[in-house]
Structures are given as C-alpha cells and as structure tokens.
Amino acid sequence: MTRPFKVSICLPTCNRPELIVQCIDSCLAQTHANIEIVIGDDSKDDRTQRLMAAQYQHDPRIRYVKNEPSLGQARNVASLFARASGDKILLIHDDDYLAEDGVERLVSLWDSHPGLDVAFADQYEVDHAGHVDGAVSAKLNADFHRTKSTEGLQKVPGRTGLIQMFPNNGWLANAELVKRVSYKEQYGTCCDFVFGVELCLAAKQIYYLNEYVSYYRKTDVSISASTRGSTNAAPVSAYAFVSSLTLERQVEPARTVALRRLVPIVVSVYAKNAAPFKALRIAFRHLSAYNYGLNARLYYHLMLISRSMLSSRAGRQPDAPTTRSAREESRTETVL
C-alpha cells in the first residue's frame, strides 16, 4: 500500500496564464490526495495573480506567491523548494502538466524501494494546443535513454543526470535531498541540467519507471529561446559544467556520453559567434564527439570555423550560413 507521504508540487510560472490553468488543474486532480501546490509567480504583469484570486483563492492545497521583484528562473525554483513542506518534492513547469495518477505511480515506488531517493518516468510530448503525438513521444524518451530495457533501479545513479536521462520536470524526490542540492543562479539557462546532474550524483538510489506520468509541451517560447545560438546558450554553460566536474571512476564514462551530445553544439555556437579558435580547440579536444573524423558534422563545423576566421580577418562578422547543411545543423541544435 502506498505510504501517506505528503508531496509538494513545486510550480514556477512566468507570463503564461493561458497555460497554467491546465497545469494546476492536473495537480489538483491527482489520485494521491496528500499534496500541496507551491507556486512562485515571476510574471511581469498581474494576469496570473488575478487568475489565481478568481479561480483558486479558497483552495487550501495551493500556496501562491507573486515574486516582487521577479526572481529569475533559478531563484524562483529554489524559493519553491525552500517553501515546500512535504516529504517529497515534484517539479512541474507552468506549460506542462501531470497525468491524473502520475504522483501516485511515482510515490508507490517507495513501497518496494524504501531507500529510494529519486524516481522519474516518461513524458508525453504535446503541441501548444495539448495534442499528444505517440510516435514523437516515444522518440523523445528513447533519445534520452528512457526505454523498457533501462527500467528499474539505476546501477550507477550519477550517470542518470549526465546522460540527460533524468527529465527537466515530472520527477519525484526526497525533499531533504532536493533542498540540499537546489537550483543555482550562476548557471543561467543551464540550471535545469545542472540541478539534474547534481541531484543524481548525490542520490544513492534512483528508479526509472517506463510509464507516462507527465506531459511536456513543445512551444516556440521558452526561457532559453532568447539565448539560443549565442555564447550564453544553455549547452555552452553545460559544456563548461560537465568539463569541470570531478567524478568517480564508475561515473566517468557518462561524461563522455554527455560531451558527445554537447560538443558539436558548442563548437557550432562559437564558430557562428566569431570565436573560431575556441571552437577549433574544443573540436579537436573532443574528437570522440565526431567519431574521430568519421562524422560529416566535423567537416561542416571546420567549414564554419574557416569562414569565421576569414571573416574575422576581414574585420566583419560572418554571414549566417545559407546552405542546406546549415539548415540541417540548426535543427540538431536542441537546447537542454
């Protein structure tokens, strides 16, 4: 029987009152009844504040705060963790939402694994209107190593965060551990990834459940969109963070997996931002990310670097690539 743990659902929001209702309603509909919903509103206007007063003011399960002034992504989430009073913490972003029994299925894992620190499961991918695409959802989870063959307790917990198996939200973890790790402002738009890595490195037991418990909404507007393609982009910060980690021997191979994903993105970003020598150093320091020269992407990046060098000598910024390869490149540069 599922233990009566109190679960604090932490919900950061910013300027999305048209989406947050579905998120809040999915939290209130949970079959696991012992919950609180802790909301931190970083919006620049009062639309969400007025919505909360009109629809949810009298629900004792909701603890809403309007941040004045705004805290920013990392400090907002960290403040939610600090305010949480539950035994377990679950994070869900304002444009995403939970399956009705999502919390219950995650909490139930503590029945069979009392020493568990962290549990997570699959995410559906939905469009802005909330339509689920089954095939796209399956690919999303497979791309992040969430498949039936990997279900269960993770043999090397620290590996889970580094290889990005751990999702950005919809997870459940012991409150004490979450509060201790928390979000850190200095990592900017990379704070989600850094938190996931540090949480998994600190955890002793992590369980992956091969079932859908949450819905991840794919939108064109996100916190990271304003920095995408710049040297402030999340993958650039993630690369620096992963490169600087001191890891135990059993976790070290996961760093290589992480860098294979990050290095090509970072090289491309620097080449397109007039930093060709930095791009070249990173590319040749991590040739394994390009399958030691057997990956055509390396030669495309060398072309970008060459163009950047020539443009720098001419005293101008490189023009945006217009080749078909460049268009393909832009589609592969997913933000963490």
Automatic annotation (TrEMBL):
<feature type="domain" description="Glycosyltransferase 2-like">
    <location>
        <begin position="8"/>
        <end position="156"/>
    </location>
</feature>
<feature type="region of interest" description="Disordered">
    <location>
        <begin position="313"/>
        <end position="336"/>
    </location>
</feature>
<dbReference type="InterPro" id="IPR001173">
    <property type="entry name" value="Glyco_trans_2-like"/>
</dbReference>
<keyword id="KW-0808">Transferase</keyword>
<feature type="compositionally biased region" description="Basic and acidic residues">
    <location>
        <begin position="325"/>
        <end position="336"/>
    </location>
</feature>
<protein>
    <submittedName>
        <fullName>Glycosyl transferase family 2</fullName>
    </submittedName>
</protein>
<dbReference type="GO" id="GO:0016740">
    <property type="term" value="F:transferase activity"/>
</dbReference>
<dbReference type="InterPro" id="IPR029044">
    <property type="entry name" value="Nucleotide-diphossugar_trans"/>
</dbReference>
<dbReference type="InterPro" id="IPR050834">
    <property type="entry name" value="Glycosyltransf_2"/>
</dbReference>
<dbReference type="Pfam" id="PF00535">
    <property type="entry name" value="Glycos_transf_2"/>
</dbReference>
